[in-house]
Amino acid sequence: MPGRLKAILLLTWAVLRTAFIRLLGVGRAGIAAFRENYDADRLPPVSEAERAAMSGFGRCIACGVCDRGEAERIARSAGAYRGVMAIVLAGGRSMPDFHAAAKSLGFVPESVIRSKEVDCPADVPILQITRFIREKAAEVGYSVPPPAVSEKRPSDQARLVVDTGPAS
Ligand code: SF4
């Protein structure tokens, strides 16, 4: 079967199935449906307040000031932690990377993060970003009832274990 025809048939089937389920009033809707569809991609839903806060997360100008004094922690992490700037730039902007970013954060005490925020020339809310990362990583990792063991692929089983690195 040609690929284009197969895609059209699959889309048609999905639309009809969705319409049928909605007509019957069965199936999940709202946040529950969102989580069912996107938790596997590590994309947790965000609240109105979180969405508003996120608009201030992209202010970083990549100056590197917040990485001053981090060499020892970076070396000790054996690759798990690449500095605060990397967390703000990469981890803070990509939800699927929040688990890795949360693990990174295990190497930096919150008091250090707070001092970085004070020194940041762009007034990036670093502390707020790091808390958001931790909360969202834990949300996807813990709050979803895990599927039955027989339904899980090995990669899913690994995903459900949130490793946040050593205690700070
Ligand atoms: S978070 Fe602030 S200090 Fe760190 S790299 Fe971005 S702008 Fe510079």
What is the number of strand segments? 0
Shape: elongated
The overall average pLDDT, rounded, is 82
Detail the poorly predicted runs.
Answer: 142-168
The small-molecule ligands in this entry are: iron/sulfur cluster
> H/E series, N to C?
HHHHHHHHH
**Helix- and strand-based class?**
mainly alpha
Strand content: under 5%
The main pleated sheet reads as: none
What would your notes on this structure say?
The structure is a single chain. With 168 residues, the chain is mostly helical. The chain has 2 domains: 1-41; 48-159, no CATH class. 54% of the residues lie in helices and 0% in strands. The chain has helices at 3-24, 30-38, 48-54, 71-76, 84-89, 98-105, 110-119, 126-142, 154-159. Residues 142-168 have low confidence and may be disordered. Bound molecules: iron/sulfur cluster (SF4). Iron/sulfur cluster (SF4) is lined by residues 60-66, 84-85, 88, 120-122, 124, 126. Iron/sulfur cluster binds next to helix 5.
What labels would you give this structure?
168 residues, mainly alpha, 2 domains, elongated, disordered C terminus, binds iron/sulfur cluster
Topology at a glance:
Blueprint: H1 3-24, H2 30-38, H3 48-54, H4 71-76, H5 84-89, H6 98-105, H7 110-119, H8 126-142, H9 154-159
This protein binds iron/sulfur cluster.
